[in-house]
Amino acid sequence: MIPSKKITILFLVLGSFVANAQNTYKNWSDIVRKSDAAWFASAEAKKIAENVLLYQRDIGGWPKNIQMQQELTPQQIKDLTVLKKTAVETTTDNSATSQEMLFMSKMYAQVKDERYKESFLKGLQYLFDAQYDNGGWPQFYPLKKGYYTHITYNDDSMVNILLIMKRIVEEPDFYSIKPSAAIIEKAKKAFDKGIDCILKTQYKQNEVLTAWCAQHDEVTLLPAKARAYELPSLSGKESAKITLLLMSTKSTPEIVTAVKAAYAWFDKTKITNLEEKRTLNDAGKIIDKKMIVTQNAAPIWARFMDLETNEPFFSDRDGIKKKSLDEIGDERKNGYAWYTDEPKEVLKKYAAWAVKNGVKVSEADKSVKKKDNYFTVAQDGSGDFTKIQDAINACPAFPYEKITVFVKNGIYTEKVKIPEWNTKVALLGESRENTIISFDDNFSKINLGRNSTFYTYTVLVEGDDFSASNLTIRNTSGHNGQAIALSIVANRAKVYNCNILGNQDTLYVSGKEVKQYFKDCFIEGTTDFIFGSATALFENCSINSIKDSYITAASTPEGTAFGFVFKNCKIISNAETKEVYLGRPWRIYAKTVFIDCDMAKHIKPEGWENWSKPEAEKTAFYAEYNCKGEGFQPNKRVSWSHQLTKKQASVYTIENILKDDIPNWYSK
């Protein structure tokens, strides 16, 4: 063995020469993958092969990031001859060893030089020797201290090794070197152990299988850290090639389960509203990267995603997680691949794989698609429609059973109308935060006269027995007057686990003798942002004011038992908002009640306002019961509002509010 100090000096000499030598070809990997078989019999190829042989250590492996085509000086040849007897820097990282083996195979196919065959077989033996008993491979072998001992999927290292084993066993014509039966058997065992390792390292998130980290601890098999900015995470890049390898392998129940779970995770985590914009200098080097918000962008995935939330994150060399690419320094931002589109191949090939393996293609949607009552909307073309309105238009009129329109993640910039004849429609989003229906109409933009407000909706529901869940509906026109996000003029409508976002007139709930239910929703706006004539129960919702104004503007019809009822809601605001009324009467018989709600300090002490309608103080019904928070000041409320007794409040049950035969008890 030569001293480590001398080895370091040798590598500095080699690195300096490689950086300055003349390039015959731009990349070594391009030469390895040349499709012109005859070229590998050329004098030029033979000259390069001598370099490849020289770089190979006697242990069988090669170092990484070497441009093997570079001409060597006599001193470098001498130094490499010394290094051959060591195992310094032998690795499978960055395609090292696997690509040199492929090159030697292509050389031997044209030139029967036994040194090429021996080199290939030594490389294969190196891979056998480097494999852990659990089936994984480290980044460096012999083992190198630090994170290099982890099982390494990074840059597809282990996948490349397993493809070699697979081809030796299943594709006898792929390599020109024909191993013995004993070696083929060893390759089969190595492959099977490797697949078993992959299955055991697939990460479970709340007991649900997802994907893989770029590296896993060689003992615990859990996701592990590599470089400072390569934190334990789920990898959008490395997981893609792993899944494709599993899909190309003879299926077992375990492999089918793994592929289905990975596909579902890729489908769930794809990003369709961002594109990467690069700025290059005159030499073609990236000097800046920015992620630009783009509608209907081709899907991409983050390189690193949080192990529990799947949220993308980014790190600089300090190892601190950041939420956006702009938060890290230029060196790491511009010098690392933070996003990838590789999983698109999984999505593209999954359907054919699923049919072949008896898997229902809609499994990832967690529903069984039926011809007439289940439609999928996906911007990437993987569903039945790419627009929500097209799916609504395909729904049957007055159906006997519920019609589900499942909307995959994405920003859908469109106005959606569910007509009166499209009853029993269930609009189901893939996720509350990432399935977004968005438009920007407002009163002035519509410009149809005094009733323009009612045409500004992003989503309009006219069909009875409607439901919406797990999505965001927003009007993005900003502070430009009336602009509805969600308009429901249908009976027996239910909206739960949704964000409803806008400014003035965000949510319109109306209709004659109409009952509607909102649960676990976040509703945001400015003036009168919940308004209309419906009987509507809001339960466990967050009601967020973003400007000093009014929350509700009910127009409850005369004689109606209940108007707007808020139960167990959080009445909140942004930091700038200081003075907000709970409501004012759009029409003089308005009814609005808050029960068991938590009111922040932005609620004005008087609570209610009459909208310059003194007569409404006698006809409107505004009340509260058992609320709390700095904004709940019952002794300072306007005299014409009410604080309910326990007996009066007991009538406000979901059964009473949403059924049709409750007497107007409080008029007595």
UniProtKB/TrEMBL annotation:
Superkingdom classification of source: Bacteria
Enzyme Commission identifier(s): 3.1.1.11
Cited PROSITE patterns: PECTINESTERASE_2
Keyword Acetylation applies: no
Catalytic activity, reaction form: [(1->4)-alpha-D-galacturonosyl methyl ester](n) + n H2O = [(1->4)-alpha-D-galacturonosyl](n) + n methanol + n H(+)
Entry's Gene Ontology cellular component terms: cell outer membrane
Sequence ranges assigned to domain Pectinesterase catalytic in this UniProt record: 376-660
GO MF term list: lyase activity; pectinesterase activity
Active site: D528
Pathway: Glycan metabolism; pectin degradation; 2-dehydro-3-deoxy-D-gluconate from pectin: step 1/5
Signal peptide bounds: 1-21
Coiled-coil intervals, chain numbering: none
GO biological process, one term: pectin catabolic process
One Pfam short name: Pectinesterase
Key words, A-Z: Aspartyl esterase, Hydrolase, Lyase, Signal
Family: Belongs to the pectinesterase family.
Name the record gives this protein: Pectinesterase
